[in-house]
Sequence to fold (281 residues):
Amino acid sequence: MSERNAYSPLPHEAPGTRRPKAGVLEATVSNFDFKAIQALSQEDVLVVRVKQFVSEELCEILSRKAEDEIGYQSYLNVPSVRRIGMAFYETENKPEIIDQYFKSAHQNILNFRNVCAPYCSPIDVLRCTLDEIWPAGANLQSLSGRKMFVGLSRMVRPGTTFLAHHDLFSEDAPGEIDANNLHAQFGANVYIKIPAAGGELLMWEKEISPVIFNEMRENDYGLDIAKLGNADLIVKPGRGDLLLFNSRKMHAVAPGKEINRLALACFVAYRGMNQPLTFWS
Fold:
């Protein structure tokens, strides 16, 4: 999968080191194949990095268009974080907002695809790649017969900490069978602009149940990272990198300096080796 065995101990580990089942490791790969999904689903790693998934040239074009030509709007329920498109997380099980999400889903996909022209949208490339590498294929997630949106463009401003949280499809769509039959859920971020200092992905190995998390966060969308102690894994993404990570684990984004941190984001659902992967935002 890479120049070395991507899922063997990292260079700083002593030979024979036994990693915990929910490893606190990052695997960097040059050839993205189904083994990356397997490693994440089996919790052999927390993060898989695909370096330079998007070229520097396209990152520059997209970051300029996103900030100067399109512009970002605040999440409905997280004003400190801004986005292009709409995340299903924002619907909060409210029928009118759910309808708004689905009515705008296809147009939001087309809008971003048009912004990328004459280049291919990195999200489209990711969608095709997942379909090609996974034996059972991969497709856009549907809920109650309606296709979801995929390809959120997200901005975190300098000095902003993206609070610690976990992402659980079952919590966002509690009454939907397809949101409650996942074996694993991964976040997929493609980084198109990253500050030289800060902006790291922080991850914690231990999972927190939704009940306890909701008690701890009180009225906020996430937790102050100080409540969780030192992160078990800190990953500094490079421009153009794709990171896939176990989004059921607690994760956060460290504050960046001087420039905005821009990433394209979606989720990937794993339901077993013989089932298709699905993706949405």
